[in-house]
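From: lab user (bench 3)
To: helpdesk
Subject: output format question, protein + nicotinamide-adenine-dinucleotide

Hello, I'm new to running complex predictions and I'm not sure whether the block I got back is the full result or only part of it. Here's what I submitted:
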Amino acid sequence: MDLKMAGKVAIVTGGVQGIGRAVVETLLSEGVKVVIADRNAEKGAAVEKEFKQSGQQVAFIAAEMIKPDDIEAMVQFAVDTFGSLDYAVNAAGYAIPNMKLVDVKYDDLVQMVMVDAVGVYLCCQYEIKQMLKQDTPCAIVNFSGNSGIVGSSAGLAGYSMSKHGVVGLTRSAALEYARTNVRVNAVCPGVTETEAVAGTRKSFPEIYQQMVDRIPIGRTGKPEEIAKAVTFLLSDASGYTTGAAFVLDGGHTAA
Ligand SMILES: NC(=O)c1ccc[n+]([C@@H]2O[C@H](COP(=O)([O-])OP(=O)(O)OC[C@H]3O[C@@H](n4cnc5c(N)ncnc54)[C@H](O)[C@@H]3O)[C@@H](O)[C@H]2O)c1
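Helpdesk reply: Thanks, we reran it on our side. This is the complete output you should expect:
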């Protein structure tokens, strides 16, 4: 299927590694110009160099996704560098597994909720503000997770709360802007083999194994599998879809 995305401009937050990076690669393969935004400036510069060496249209900006000034600057950077903002993928986020609800420290909880929920809200705010200035079809994909659909017993209550919040934010933003040029959807991946999950596998092997054992399809997800769904949700091929929470979890939430 020709998704007709060539020449469009995207921002991918959390794009230097993991699923975000796979999204960057997939969008580049469709001819999209991509701004990668991430708090990891060192790795970001290396990734930008790597893609540019292969002739790709990418630009990196260091940004902390809980700082409104950074997020506003990120959107302006995309417009200044590539001329518009057609797509945004808000993938920056993290989970600390094994954080039992009764033990979690206030500062750790607030920091995580700020990045995983409030940061996504702020990204939508500045991205939509820019998209409304354009009269072309624009789309946003927010990263929730299957813990945004069901609960988890792996010490992930704060994470799950944030990811449920992302689904609520996505549905509300989609409805608020349904009659404009902006569509807003969410993806809800299950366990996907990224650097973050490799950390869980190493530090909490039992929790990792429990999570894998619960996947009906019998395996974890690959970042490219999530990236393809994100790309479809950004493209006009999904033009009738807004406010969706698209689950990709090997059947976990169906069980
Ligand atoms: N991997 C999974 O199993 C899984 C499952 C469900 C949902 N998700 C979600 O998918 C997204 C990507 O996950 P991943 O596994 O690829 O993670 P990852 O840790 O491999 O990569 C996340 C990237 O986001 C960046 N980042 C984190 N906090 C940031 C902040 N405050 N400001 C700017 N950049 C920040 C990191 O530097 C990193 O480059 C996350 O939102 C995660 O919650 C992942």
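A quick orientation on your result: The mean pLDDT is 97. Let us know if anything else is unclear.
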